[in-house]
Amino acid sequence: MKTGVPLDASLLCASIDLSVLDGKPSGGKTLPGALMGQERALDAIRMAAKIPHEDFNLFVLGNQGYGRHTAVTAILQEEAQHRPVPSDWVYVNNFETPDKPQAIELQPGLALSLKQAMDALIDNLANDIPALFESESYQNQRRKLEQEFGETNENEFSGLIEEAKKNELALLRTPMGFAIAPTKDGKPIKAEDFETLPMAQQEAINSKIEAANEKLEAVLKEIPKHEKAHRRAIELLNKSMAEQGVDEAMLPVYGQFEKIGILKSYLDAVHADLIENAELFLSDGSAAQAGPFPVATTKHYKEPQFRRYTVNVMVSNTPDGKRGAPVEVEFLPTLANLIGRVEHLSEMGVLFTDFTMIKPGALHRANGGYLILDVRQLLSEPFAWDALKRCLKSGQISIVSAAERFSLATTTSLEPDPIPLNLRIALVGERSLYYLLMAYDPEFAPLFKMQADFNDGVFLTEETVPQYVELVHSIARDKSLLSPDPAGLQRLMIEGTRLADDSQKVSLDLGRLSDILREANYWAMAAGNKTITADDIDRAVAEAETRAGRIRELTQEAISRETLLIKTTGDAVGQINALSVLELGNYRFGRPSLVSARARMGRGKVVDIEREVELGGPLHSKGVLILSGYLATHYALDTPMSLWASIVFEQSYGGIDGDSASAAELFALLSTLADVPISQAFAVTGSVNQQGRIQPIGGVNEKIEGFFDVCAGRGLTGNQGVLIPDTNVKHLALRSRVIDAVRADKFKIIPIATIDEGIALLTSRKAGKRSKKGLFPATSVNGLVEARLRSFAEGLRSFGAMVDPGKGNGAAVK
Amino acid sequence: MSQKDQPRQWRIIVGATSFADANSAIALAVGLASELDGEINACLIEDEAVLAYAALPFARTIFPGGGKAEPVTLQAMQSAFRRDAEGFRKAIENAASLGAFRWTFQQKRGELRSLLPTALGERDIVVIGRQRLHGRAGDLYVLDDASQPAERLYAMALRTADRLKVPINVLIWGKDAAAVDARQTWVEQTWVEQTCSNSGVPIQSVCGTAFDRTVLDAIAKNSPAAMMLSRSVADQIDLEQLLDIGRCPVLVVAD
Predict the structure, then answer these.
(1) Record: contact B221-A206, CB cut-off 8 A
(2) Cβ count near A122 (within 10 Å)
(3) pLDDT tens per residue across span B134-190
(4) Residues spanned by the domain of A430
(5) What is the spatial distance between Cα A51 and Cα A57, in angstroms, rounded to a whole number?
(6) Distance CA A260, CA A117 (A)
(7) Pair A517, A578 in one domain
(8) Arithmetic mean of pLDDT over chain A
(9) Which of B131, B165, B187 is the last residue of a domain?
(10) Closest-CA residue in chain B for A143?
(11) Structural domain of residue B186, as residue ranges?
(12) Given an 8 Å threshold on Cβ–Cβ distance, is A209 in contact with B68?
């Protein structure tokens, strides 16, 4: 490619060769679109899926819309099918310490069987135990005990009353307890009558009362003892009856699960507790709540008093041989959704919980398999990231709520057994988050040793073009869209190069590609097409730009109405059209800006006005310093740099950054130093290094189109054009309106490699090369610049004064 | 039906000579009031015999839970009655606030029998409280002298036994053997077969010729949950003695 001359229209966008295809979509096996061009990332995912070490968790990094989730899910699901079905996990009541529920690992499929068996056991007992206790045998034994006890108490008490009567005494009940009162004719003696009795009789009565009181004391003292013995006897009877029922009901459960070691001890604990608490089955609530169903069919296990015997299934896997290990995706990775939670119920204003209210989290469900999480969501959920790391480090899932972390939980809570954790985490997120975690979280790298970095684009080759075509077709099929015709495919791929900012590469932003295809499908359907054509793609792209282009239109309007002063014809000294890109959301556009430069004698300082007022970013300042370096090392090397210059983006009121205008700024400065006008028909983009080499910049397409639209709005003269770095030619993916204008010689896009090439094009004068004597030709631009700089140096020497830049206006004359 | 023709609301008269005794009857009375949509008239009787005893110089009381006999004065006993009355009133008030029924409370001096109004209406039930010696509850005893029609008594007994979840033990006696036989036949063939068959309440009946010591001993050994009798029976027997023997609440309904 030759620099310094306008590019041919054929070089302004990618040339897609679809001859590698047979012209028809394969319609066969779809190459997963998300996997195209991502071999490095896919290999990493496959390795992470297979490597057994627990700390080789995966971070899938790349931009949104590039198929990271699809790819990682597809690969992990494929790998999961070859892994064993993980164990079931249940929580059961810990009868000794109910606040520490017991976790039990079971073979796949057994958790539900155990739950069903326990529920059936409770249902059976709820029917059997009341029947046992209502049986004739039990009632007879009970009645006998009651009678024995009643007789013991009553006989003693009745004997006491009878004896008191014989002694003309009565047992009175008072609010202060029992009293033994003397009687006369069956009625208690009144105080005044008592006092009239002879002293001897009074003393005799007193003696009888004291004796009776002693007996009463003895009888009352025995009652609690009898009560206790009676209670014990009833308990033993009840226990023996309950044992009969529980033994029989638990036989099938033992038969089914006894061989599983850990369940044997649990079933023994259930057995003992059922006998100990058999009265739970004698409460009368069930019949009243049975509703229209007979009591025998009521689901008794759902009643609160029987919750202690139920089984809380945390994870249940079906060993059908097809599913393999689980692949879970948690879209809302809150702390609770991740590690599970302990729920509470409000009962009479008090929060209550038990082991049945332990709910599993994503870690439980994915245990033994894979868990995919979006890292941004994970990091934005309080305590979730911390909890995940804790679980991975400890190798077990411990349920700790946020309230407990803050010590805010003042109600009953649980401390469930931790469940061993063995899974592979796949985090999906942007690169910036990966690097931030690497930099600032020392626990991250040891836990996430695998990274799968997704490419943003892929080179167009004979191999990738058919893959990309198939990718487009697969999207069309997945979304039920019309199929794109060859021209449509070609146009779509060119748009793909535009998205990649590279005519040799195509973007792998599947999200954006899908958007364009679906919008094009809309327009194709509206037009009654049977396929998606190139025009439909063009329409979709144009409509999307129009929808997002209000600010761009306002900018163009301001330029056309000369509110923003941009010249596209004529010449001017010290000013040039530079190009910048504005990015608003996912839409960006280019616009020209007037850059001007002024110079005078000084102390070798180039003032970046943007920087002085803190509107310029560091990259822009760097560009200005580089061009200062170019000036200082390129001209009048034998004299002190005696220049004071200022450079500014005119009518720029917002921040500006980047060095893509540094070449334009240098051209403006050279123009003002040489006092040679620059053609305003050109706009320039490109950065410059200290050797005067033009370097590539970003957003070249938008910049060219931004200036083109301004020129087109005023009428193309054929002289207008844009100077771009020659190294940016491969990035060109211009819109057809620009290409058409170039093809018609109405607009030029000229690649340049050096500052001198640019000077010659902009000023229509030779830049000038140093002769063997080391001098530039006197009339060349470089010669004029050097002469000007020498004159500044001479001037300074003549005045013999130092420039004090702090005073603001260059040299101070003594 | 005019308002005048409508039967008046049920009235449950509940009383005792101490809060401990009254407390044993409150649940029964509240259950009846709720079931019958009636009102409760509560009364604490300051037993004159107790006050007379407390005035004696050697008066002593023993706490039912055991312990030594402690001296007591008339003033202390009067204070105890006031405390019990207040406790009784509050208990009724609390129960009424939950059950949403009307209630009254009074404290008066006299004998326990004075709880029985002169004219016991057909929509009146008197519940006389008496604390049991121990927690065990035996049967509900129905005391029937076969002298009057007793459908109301038996209907109320079935209802109460069903609520207390205890069996019914019917004691029928009387001088007129034919009347006793007729009553037993009615109980067994009509009441038990037709009325009680769906209730699930076990029922047994015993006939005798007199309400004598044997009957009282049988009641004492059973430690009844409650006893029910008609007004006519209540007027014949020594209520104090019956309460001492049964040591349980006594319910009296109109004949």
Answers:
(1) no
(2) 25
(3) 666 788 999 998 888 888 899 899 989 888 888 898 988 888 888 888 988 888 888
(4) 36-86+317-455
(5) 9
(6) 14
(7) no
(8) 87
(9) B131
(10) B138
(11) 132-248
(12) no
